[in-house]
Amino acid sequence: MMRTDWLWLAPLSLLSTPAFAQALTPAEQAQIDKVVTDALADTGVPSAEIAIVRGGRIVLSRAYGKQCERCGAPDPTLPYQIASNSKQFTAMAMLLLEDEGRLNLDDHVARYLLGISGGDTITVRQLLSHTSGLQDYWPQDYSFKAMATPVTPAQIVDRWARKPLDFTPGTQWQYSNTGYVVAGLIVEKVAGMPLLDLLRQRIFGPLGIRAIDQDLARGPGFPDGYRRLALGPVRVETPAARGWLYAAGELSMSAQDLARWDIARMDRALVPADDWAAQETPVRLADGSTTGYGLGVFAGVADGRRFVEHSGEAVGFLSENMVLPDDKAAVVVLTNAWFSDAYRRIATAISRIILPTPPATADDQAAMVKVRQVYDQLRTGTLDARLLTADAAYYFNPAAQADYRTSLQPLGEPAAFTQAGKTALRGGFVERNYRVSYPGRVLQIGTFAEPGPGGRLEQLLVSPAQ
Question: Which stretches of 333-361 are DSSP H helices?
Answer without folding.
Answer: 342-354
